[in-house]
Please model this.
Amino acid sequence: NEFIMRQMNGPFLAAHLRRGDFELMRASNFIGLRDASRQIAEHLSRLHLSILYLATDSSSLGLKLFVYFV
Model:
């Protein structure tokens, strides 16, 4: 944990934003980029964090939209 925190320059929030096949397989649980980014921004604020580690299979356009919404 300490090694990772040093690499990330402090405490951080990690999120896995699945896109791609997840939308097809779990359509009833799928949320849009705007809602996902809002939820993550709320967690960052609530936890007083400014660093986000985001793992995603989103397209580069999807990632740009996510950053715009956050």
Notes: Residues 28 and 38 are 19 Å apart (CA to CA).
